[in-house]
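pasting for ref
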Amino acid sequence: MSCFYNPVKLKWGPEITKDLPEIITASDLNMKNVLILTGSKSLKKSGKLDIILKSLNDRRIFVCDGVPSNPEISELCGFKSETDKLNYDSIIAIGGGSVIDMGKCLAAFKNLQINGYSTLKRGIINKRHQNNSIDIPIVAIPTTAGTGSEVTSWATIWDKENNKKYSIESERLYPKIAIIDPTLTMDLPLQLTVSTALDALSHALEAYWSKRTNEIVRMYALMAIELIIKNLNNLIDNLNDLNLRTKIAQASLYAGLAFSNTKTTACHSISYPLTSKYNIPHGIATSMTLANFFNINKESIIDKDALLSAFDVEEISQIKNKINNIFLKSKIPFKLRDYNIKEEDFDSIIKRSFTPDRMNNNPVEVTRELLREVLKDIY
């Protein structure tokens, strides 16, 4: 029997953010003192942030901007120290996955006494965020189409000094509401548009073959893959097309719903050292190995024909061309050597690629020898 669970209330559609006050009121959330988290300067420049702030003028608002991409523990420590002075009772996170993840992290540690970086780091490693005192409602408003953080119960936090990635996870960290407004993605530059869409593609594909997959997950995953494959190349040529932006935002949401029930697998696990040490953008790092693991996992994949059909191909070997063509069309480097990685770096990458809850979720066991062959192929 298939089981699917996701408690996030979804609000969807172009310009839906203009209804934010009514959405909050109708949801019976106690949001009187609201922390607004943002990261993108373009949101301010576009005037969209001001519109959102004015719509909430009957509430006490604290704005905390400058959330960085791939936030580190030290940066979380700084944001926590800054926001602990504020008497906020709720969070609205408006931005990419990093902003939404920061919102979850702040909610997780809001009611815990953390004395500086070292105790915060121990708290993350020891999963103190499971504490039942988490009672900060989060409204997630993504401005990218790819991470899916608006519909998941976990957040990523980085420790780049040690080339490690940690996860904050609790069912209490699902956002109460996710507001998907495709117009907020209109100003995304080409590389970020493609990178985040490829992250969504990775979420969908990995959810499809995950050990935790089920029929409902695969339904969402197939819809996400088909939307990305049909529309991303056209979007690369027409970044101002709202209809295409809407299709990719829809795909990102479906992919997020899919992997919210499965987590990711080997491709994401391998991507972490590629991002933390070599600064390969996350969505590019995850998608570099998708075709390889499609082939590696092929005997364990349920209904491969449906998956091939979503990619609009007849053979697994054609998947690599589909993905590589996206890279080529957007002029994004897609080989390890393009990012100054050398073959002598493989041992270090392999050592740091085995994130247990991701790698062990892959349907086929990944050995160090197998991983070395994958790295050689994408070198």
